[in-house]
Known about the structure:
This protein is an all-alpha fold. The chain has helices at 11-60, 62-66, 70-81.
Amino acid sequence: MAKKIKFQLSLYLKFICLILALVLFISGILSTYFILSARKMMMSDLKNKGITLARNMAHNSKFGILVSSREELKKVVAAAAEDQDVVYSFITDEEGGI
Length: 98
């Protein structure tokens, strides 16, 4: 007959395993919280930067739109494109022209 091998952990090893499981669980929760918090903060910063850039472009393009000067508007778009976070930009008037 096959002998049954009993495997028993000592109380000390059980305690160590419990503490290890708690540490892993808590570190997982904290890691998730900090990652989500950082992501939310970065998205908020990116949104605020986009709004600021749009307001600056709107302010700097007033003259170009009033006189319908494409050269002035190209300068404003080129200045905005110098920022590494800007993928594309364009300027339109109220009717969608220019």
